[in-house]
TrEMBL record:
InterPro entries: ATP-NAD_kinase_N, ATP-NAD_kinase_PpnK-typ_C, NAD/diacylglycerol_kinase_sf, NADK. Residues 21-54, 251-272 are annotated as: Disordered. It comes from Ramazzottius varieornatus (Water bear). This is NAD(+) kinase. The lineage of its organism: Eukaryota, Metazoa, Ecdysozoa, Tardigrada, Eutardigrada. Its EC number is 2.7.1.23. Keywords: Kinase, NAD, NADP, Transferase. GO terms for cellular component: mitochondrion.
Amino acid sequence: MVLWRRSALHQLQNSIQARGLTGSFHRSKPIASTAGSDDRAKSSMSRKASPDGRSIQAFRPKKVLVLSKITRYEFEKQKQSPLTDEELAEALAKKGSNLATLKKYHDFHKEQAHNIVKSLTERKIEAHIVNRYEYGPETVKWADAIITAGGDGTFLLGASMVKDARVPIIGVNTDPRRSEGYLCLPKEDSLSFPASLDKLLDQQFRWAYRQRIRVELSGPHAMEAPVELHEQELDFPRHKFADFAVDLDDKNEEPSSKDNATSTAPGTSSQETFSRVLPECALNEVFIGESLSSRVSYYEITVDNYPAQKQKSSGVAICTGTGSRSWAFNINKLTKQATASIINIIRETSLLPIPSEDEYIEMITSRFNDKLLFDPSDERMVYTVRDPVSNRVYGAENPRGYAQRVTIKSRCSDASLVIDGGSSYKFNDGATAVFTINPEDALRTVQLL
């Protein structure tokens, strides 16, 4: 599988170089700085003044990178490559899947991705399509804009390599019948991409900025490369660290100017302590906790300027406004069953004539859940303590709340810090992470008018 990926990357290099691009792709390296991207942005995005005097960039890209998702059909074919189509169909049938159906969805996605590239080239915009294995800092550096062809997962992957707002990213949901695509263009706009592209080129849109979480990690393992969770299942059936070990030398670069390495005080520890800002920013959320969900996570948390508190729980999720509609929402949402139980208790103890109709229960539930959502441009985070342990020693008086800055010191034995469900960093005893939102890290995308 590793050889297959390297062959694909080699072929892509030759293709890109034939188009006049330079450099090489290193999909597993930390994101590099994009020198010269200001000049590129100025040449491809013209500017005009808005009524309030601010500068507005028009969407006029010359080069667009299209990031295509790996379909389930491709995934199964790669994962079980020794099998013939007949053997694969039989193996999938045992799991309740149908190879012919997967192939149909695969073909539909490929057709939609091809239409995106065709629409761009017909409008004299150079377009190049890549998959997740070919996507990296060099491809992002080449592009004036990025279009993701897939769903929310593909959009998150695309966003992970974009360091700031200079390169806009636009999500196209290639199968809105089976995918929500909250981060992508709406269903109708995704299915009629040529018309949506014309709207973009005619400036019938507004720029939207999604804030992201910056993570500063310190500890003995802070400089180690992450495990890519999205690739583990494809590479090996269980923990799959072998592929990670093969690419480790490629992933470890010299610390950037943002990275600081310091030693611990003499006599305190034989391990060195390092510190750096992680190359990825979280668009949805960061999760911190033991790798096995059945184990209790032990840590010390500080929210803004409040006193530090030692807690035990099932982990902590810290989300953005974008992520407030994702996992964080499902962690915190109230169910109609819980609402009905609370209303019954209030009715019994207060003797008030509180309605018990389903419509009233649904209204109360919806109002509570709506308050969990906040704007993607909001420069605040929301932290959520999952299943906090409450006793005379440990507690979480406020298991959920807004924050400008969160600091977590690990007391865990086998924990991870996971960014957007993808990159997983070691976060064991002795590690510390600081979470903040910085406007310069915002992701630039669009809202069609």
